[in-house]
Specification:
alpha/beta; TIM Barrel; 2 domains; six-stranded parallel sheet
């Protein structure tokens, strides 16, 4: 399960309270991911967090050991991930949903110490870039696919080509937009998987998913 945004990382006491409540509610064996977002609303104006605010946020998150912390610095400030990784080596960082070219991803790989790459197939350059990433790195790849079932399906088929796959992002807050982009709907199964819909005559596969309940 993944949660975040909504001012996360601005009120340390509330962050700790929310994380404790979510940990208590999660069934055994379930993973928690946190997406603080790379900007916050400060009196109606968006801004990035200060380094001290990020440091405090990561210190609190360290106590809860999420599977990853996602996209919490400006998308072009790759070096901040490396700096904070040195301070918090026990946390896993994920990023990449904002990157739009293979060159952006190569910089992300070389200039930051992230653990998980998150290409969005509708932004990154599609399968051309995603398949190049698959060939160039052995880091975990989990596509960003929050908005529509069309992107969910596109991402599932790419992830099914990977030698091993851990998660696919699946938005359970289904809206008319997310459902209306495809003639048929994808569904989250009770065991936490979503089927990769096969071509006619081929075998069905499933992959483990992470989902965003915001």
């Amino acid at each position: 399960m993944k949660f975040g945004w909504g001012g996360f990382g601005m009120d340390p006491g509330l962050d700790r309270e929310n994380l404790a409540a979510i940990r208590d509610a999660l069934p055994a064996g379930h993973q928690l991911m946190v997406d603080p977002g790379w900007y916050v609303d400060d009196g109606g104006r968006p801004r990035t967090r200060t380094a001290d605010q990020i440091r405090t946020m990561l210190s609190i998150l360290s106590d809860f050991q999420p599977y990853w912390v996602e996209d919490f610095v400006h998308p072009e400030d790759f070096g901040q991930y490396r700096s904070f990784k040195a301070e918090f080596p026990g946390l896993r960082f994920a990023a990449g949903e904002q990157q739009a070219t293979i060159w952006d991803f190569r910089r992300l790989l070389t200039e930051s110490d992230i653990d998980v790459l998150q290409p969005d197939l509708s932004r990154c350059g599609g399968l051309t870039v995603a398949l190049a990433l698959r060939a160039e790195t052995d880091r975990e790849i989990v596509t960003h696919s929050w908005l529509t079932d069309l992107l969910h399906a596109y991402s599932l088929h790419f992830l099914a080509t990977l030698p091993s796959v851990t998660w696919v992002e699946f938005n359970v807050a289904q809206s008319e937009l997310s459902r209306g982009a495809c003639s048929s709907r994808l569904a989250l199964e009770p065991d936490g998987t979503v089927a990769v819909r096969p071509e006619s005559g081929s075998a069905s596969r499933s992959t483990r998913i992470s989902y965003d309940q915001s």
